[in-house]
Write a structure and sequence with these properties.
InterPro entries: Leucine_aapep/pepB, Macro_dom-like, Peptidase_M17_C, Peptidase_M17_N_1
Oligomer: single chain
GO molecular function, one term: aminopeptidase activity
Number of strands: 20
CATH topology of the largest domain: Aminopeptidase
Number of domains: 2
CATH class of the largest domain: Alpha Beta
Strand content: 15-25%
Organism: Dyella mobilis
Family: Belongs to the peptidase M17 family.
Number of helices: 15
Distance between the termini: 32 Å
CATH superfamily of the largest domain: Zn peptidases
Keywords: Aminopeptidase, Hydrolase, Manganese, Protease
Structural class: alpha/beta
């Protein structure tokens, strides 16, 4: 991935970057010449987070960069620099205010990302020199994040169900994993009716892709990702504004694919199953209609209250299939509800879990790796909000209250009692450019869940 070139092992003397803040600016100034201090004053540099000032030596050559940081946000500290500083190689000076060096380097790499499939890079990013150990630790995370961004940023014409399946096959080939898929009517033949029902109206056949890897005697881990490659809303058609960015509705699948890659690259001692239901929710004469009743793989009947609540439909058959394998843990990712964004905004994925210890471990890992999430409750009294008078339950209901919770409660019905399950309702998108977070597709919760899986299974 291109971002990996922005972190390099330190081979020569790069230009030092001194991270400072308003408290330490005075001590930073003491290390400078009189001319450099005058230049700081001329530029009114006050160490505001995100600001920087280039300093030349007596010969006019770039000698040092002062950058203002918030030391409590190491991930963002250097993240704006790779696309702002003159092209060259830099290193973090030892005189900098205390920062988590690994997080700062990760932020630099994430800030260097550019999506270049359809246009040339606007410029070459600058390089941060790091030690070999840091580079080795960060490279997989940068690759995985770039993969999520690339998949989500790609328009649907080039990222339809088959393209998403091809991404899984490419991953399987790289790690010598087994890949299987069910396409079109094969879904009906092998009892995946809700996946077929959602995707049948598209000119591109719906499919379920399964990747398996690892030793049979290791604990079973199932990863599931919502792969709705475009969501019109179906017959409950979205508005033009609501439909504009629905290429990103396969963001959950992108996360699950990238996480599976991290698990296999780290050689975690698990028997991994990755499941990607890949569909387009389209409009045609055979489209799923409101009021229909669909029998799911688990034998539970679902009334279609809203065809735009399709994500939980493609996931429920996948979760039921995953549960049949009796895994030690199921984790799913989905760009599932606008209600989660109303509750938590764009930056915080909503985390649901039926096991308190696993939920707390995931949240703690998110804090440790600067990839925060927020837990919402599986408040079971709200199940009545998706009651149906003709089926076991519906995929939606008349109330607009607690939409993220009722969606999670819907999916929980397909998880057997006592089987650990974690669900992330994630946005997978940046609405605008911020340090380390360029506009477009984004990995949210990926590093947190990977850290949790490492802690859970490395100890075994």
């Amino acid at each position: 991935m291109p971002a990996l070139t922005e972190l390099r092992a330190n081979r020569q003397a790069p230009t030092p970057i001194e991270a400072t803040d308003a408290v330490h600016l005075a001590s930073s100034r003491k290390r400078l010449s009189a001319a450099q201090r005058h230049w700081l004053d001329e530029n009114r540099f006050d160490a505001t987070p995100g600001s920087f000032c280039l300093l030349a030596d007596a010969n006019g050559k770039l000698a040092r960069v002062l950058v203002g940081v918030d030391r409590h946000d190491a991930l963002a500290a250097l993240a704006s620099l790779p696309m702002s500083l003159p092209v060259g190689e830099y290193s973090l000076a030892g005189e900098s205010v205390p920062l988590d060096l690994q997080l700062a380097a990760l932020g630099w790499a994430l800030g260097a990302y550019q999506f270049t499939r359809y246009r040339k890079a606007r410029r070459a990013p600058s390089t941060l020199a790091v030690d070999a150990k840091t580079l080795a630790a960060l490279a997989p995370l940068v690759e995985a994040t770039s993969l999520v961004r690339d998949l989500v940023n790609t328009p649907t014409e080039d990222m339809g169900p088959k393209h998403l399946a091809d991404a899984v096959k490419q991953l399987g080939k790289a790690h010598k994993a087994k890949v299987r898929e069910w396409v079109g009517d094969e879904l009906l033949e092998d009892n995946f009716p809700t996946i077929h029902a959602v995707g049948r109206a598209s000119h591109r056949a719906p499919r379920l892709v399964e990747l398996t890897w690892g030793k049979a005697d290791h604990p079973k881990l199932a990863l599931v990702g919502k792969g709705v490659c475009f969501d019109t809303g179906g017959l409950d058609l979205k508005t033009s504004d609501g439909m504009r960015w629905m290429k990103k509705d396969m963001g959950g699948a992108a996360h699950a694919i990238a996480l599976a890659g991290l698990v296999m690259q780290a050689k975690l001692p698990v028997r991994l199953t990755l499941l990607i239901p890949a569909v387009e929710n389209a409009v045609a004469g055979n489209a799923l209609r409101p009021g229909e009743v669909v029998m799911t793989r688990a034998g539970l009947s679902v009334e279609i209250d809203n065809t735009d609540a399709e994500g939980r439909l493609v996931l429920c058959d996948s979760l039921a299939y995953a549960a049949e394998q009796k895994p030690d843990l199921i984790v799913d990712f989905a760009t599932l509800t606008g209600a989660a964004r109303v509750a938590l905004g764009p930056d915080l994925p909503a985390l649901f879990a039926n096991d308190d210890a696993i939920a707390e471990a995931a949240l703690a890992c998110g804090r440790a790796v600067a990839d925060p999430m927020w837990r919402l409750p599986l408040w079971r009294p709200y199940r009545k909000m998706i009651d149906s008078y003709i089926a076991d339950f519906a995929n939606g209901g008349p109330s607009r209250h607690a939409g993220a919770i009722t969606a999670a409660l819907y999916m929980e019905r397909f998880i057997p009692e006592g089987m650990p399950w974690v669900h992330l309702d994630t946005y997978a998108w940046n609405d605008g450019d911020r340090p380390g977070r360029p506009r477009g597709g984004e990995a949210m919760g990926l590093r947190a869940i990977f850290e949790m899986l490492q802690q859970r299974y490395r100890s075994r």
